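Here's what a typical entry looks like (Aminotransferase):
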Amino acid sequence: MDQLSATLTRVKPSPTIAVTTMAAELKAQGRDVIGLGAGEPDFDTPDNIKAAAKAAIDAGKTKYTAVDGIPELKQAICDKFKRDNNLTYTPSQVSVGTGGKQVLYNALMATLNPGDEVIIPAPYWVSYPDMVLLAGGTPVTVECGIEQGFKMSPRQLDDAITDKTKWLIFNSPSNPTGAGYSREELKALTDVLVHHPHVMVMSDDMYEHLRFGSFEFCTPAEVEPELYDRTLTVNGVSKAYAMTGWRIGYAAGPEKIIGAMRKIQSQSTSNPCSISQWAAVEALNGPQDFLKEWCAVFERRRDLVVEGLNGAKGVTCPVPDGAFYVYPSIAELIGMVSAGGAAIDSDEAFAKALLEEEGVAVVFGAAFGVSPCFRVSYATSDAALEEACTRIRRFCAGCS
């Protein structure tokens, strides 16, 4: 008798975690490896946030809390949505989970039935399709290639909607491309959704505060108020506040969905870490001025990497609007052979050979639904990025 659930046959392990693990193992063996796979800021959590966590410990705030968040954090989240997005929510419309991933998963588990379809623009964050599958739904991917800036068009969205569509998962700025939708582009998409009242919107705004140049962030329920009652707006403190390990994500939306998510969480993890919740209160309510400084650093690194990769043979690297990723195409390298004798017949083969021959760990594009590309996270030091780009250029130059 098979001891494992048949559900597991529908999903695969996270490729981004796998790449990070492989890079760490090679480093432990003494290899000189530059890891560009992890989507994690290299900044430390700000001191005021750490101080709030220490104060919570000293005050004995170490017990169970309400399943989906303490009142103080829910109010801070409501205040954030009003301040940053002009969206009005009450605490009863807010759910706090152990990272944005759990919040997304809870929402899908609470709403999907067999046969329900979820539209996912590709390139996509690796976990979206697998979470849909785990929840019993059917992911419907819409490929948005480099020629369209990795962004979905209104026609593509309209064509993908059927009577079985339950959700659209929307992510801007994007992981893995860093592409962001302008207000006009997003309004064109929401205009389509207005005409399909059975479709709900799951907006993953995790990279909201990491934006560059003249790009202005906006979110679906803000752009089109008619979608307010069928939009779940998801965010968290991991990326903007360098709190990945604290594991706090949150969402606001219709009370019926929030209540269903609470029920799921009550029978899985129960409440997120109490100390992390108090730290998140300070993150959202405290000073925000450091965000501008961090964005300036990320923008400088973005420019460094874009220039460095566009100087590589066979690589085309668009300039992203936000987040801390680039998603270059290697279409011109497919069919070549590396200096070490590896056949570059896919972006997965490219990434494997790059790691083995030059010690640079990147994530292959097939993991994100659009090939032949690869993702680089530039959330690391300038020196590491410069050296990585040098190695990538050398690797590409050796392909023939």
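The longest helix spans residues 290-310.

More examples are in the samples folder.
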